[in-house]
Write a structure and sequence with these properties.
With 421 residues, this protein is an all-alpha fold. Helix content is 84%, strand content 0%.
């Protein structure tokens, strides 16, 4: 297989192997920690889970990507990236141990969320540093290959880490603290793996005094995002695709919160059964994402990017009430798979639209805006769901609202397609 052959070529590069080890350990720890956070909020026997609690957990997981993310590069250009991996993972290991102690002590929720937010905020610096470091360990001829395979390997590691967290929690009789400590061990492993890389290897080059002042760099970042929005407004087709993706992401977030509540209360009579059902649902949705990666190139060739997005949104508008309103596990699992296809297919199409319509000199700034919209849409959906969902997650109003939004997105995309053809 070409992927296996390409990976073998890259693994012959010693420093790439070492950087990849840091990525795999760090992202597997992220997967463990994210599942630990979600299961603590949703499936702890001593807690009465509410949609508001789930919304808070979503904010902890995603807001650092939106608030800290655009500025991570500013600070990374001032610090040795190897040191970011070392001290960032050590800090996360320490904070994760503290989080485990907070779980055992049954502290107020706000203190637990503050600890969890600190861990996920550091994550932005580590992930950005891993991407920025690739050109230092791979030659230019292999850089595209490395950019394709390295993040994919990291995502797989995070998925496997999440699966391990589910298994450990079930084996440890529902102990969330044990799962968090597993994440701490993996973070420590990532820190130790970074020590195999020379301090100066990953950059940045030049003494600190030659780098711009922090205040000036932050101001440049803010101005850059404003310029990105202005440039996007001059590219209406890309802007409308991005707006549609934001709403599709919002719908997916709202349905995710509803599904969590259904797994917790409506479809199971115990926390362990609900957790197992959630694991199956996540796996089914992930299969939908994978399927989208396979079918979207063919669909785009046949229908175009906007045509495929329109078809997906229209199908979702029909499928959400048809499969969701019975509030039964089997049809909802089918819906989870199909909505995974729709959501990831829309993401691939939107990425393509933005990459092809936006000038190269503005592309990074526009994608920074894209990242903020993508994550805040999910958090906003969780907040709206908290207001609409009953304790058992069965809300006809929420499902119909989501269906109407999907239909509105389909109509808007169809009009946009006609305008530009």
């Amino acid at each position: 297989m070409p992927v296996v052959r390409d990976l073998r070529v890259l693994l012959r590069l010693r420093d790439f192997r070492r950087l990849l080890a840091v990525r795999l350990l760090s992202q597997s720890a992220d997967g463990v920690y994210q599942v630990a956070l979600a299961t603590y909020v949703v499936f702890s026997p001593e807690k009465q889970t509410s949609p508001a609690a789930i919304a808070s957990a979503m904010a902890v997981l995603l807001l650092p990507y939106s608030i800290v993310g655009p500025f991570a590069g500013v600070l990374l250009d001032r610090w040795r990236r190897r040191q970011v991996f070392l001290y960032g993972n050590l800090l996360r290991a320490l904070l994760a141990c503290g989080t485990a102690g907070l779980v055992l002590a049954s502290v107020p929720d706000w203190l637990f969320y503050a600890s969890a937010l600190s861990v996920t905020a550091v994550n932005r610096f580590v992930l950005a540093g891993l991407s920025a470091s690739l050109p230092r360990v791979v030659d230019s001829d292999r850089l595209v290959m490395a950019n394709a395979l390295s993040p994919t390997a990291g995502t797989l590691a995070a998925t496997l880490g999440g699966g391990a967290a589910f298994a450990v929690r079930l084996l440890a009789s529902g102990s969330n603290a044990v799962v968090v400590l597993l994440a701490a061990v993996l973070y420590l492993g990532g820190a130790l793996a970074s020590l195999r890389l020379p301090v100066a290897l990953l950059g940045p080059d030049g003494p600190p005094q030659q780098r711009p002042a922090l205040r000036a760099a932050v101001a440049v970042t803010v101005r850059g995002m404003v310029d990105g929005v202005r440039h996007l407004n001059q590219r209406p087709r890309a802007a409308r695709a991005l707006a549609a993706m934001t709403m599709i992401r919002f719908c997916y977030g709202a349905l995710t919160v509803a599904l969590l509540m259904l797994c917790r209360y409506a479809w199971s009579d115990s926390e362990s059964a609900g957790l197992a059902l959630l694991g199956v649902t996540v796996a089914v949705s992930g299969a939908g994402f994978f399927t989208a990666a396979l079918v979207t190139p063919w669909a785009v060739h046949r229908f175009g990017t906007l045509g495929w997005m329109t078809a997906g949104a229209l199908a979702a508008a029909v499928l959400v009430p048809a499969l969701g309103l019975p509030f039964a596990p089997a049809p909802m699992l089918v819906a989870a798979f199909l909505l995974g296809v729709v959501t990831q297919g829309a993401k691939i199409c939107t990425d393509t639209e933005v990459q092809s319509r936006v000038e190269d000199s503005f592309r990074g700034r526009v994608f920074a805006v894209y990242d903020v919209l993508f994550n805040t849409a999910f958090v906003g959906a969780a907040a709206v769901s908290a207001l609409m969902l009953p304790p058992d997650g069965k809300s006809v109003a929420l499902l119909l609202t989501v269906a109407v939004i999907y239909a509105g997105v389909a109509v808007g995309l169809a009009r946009t397609r006609r305008c530009f053809t």
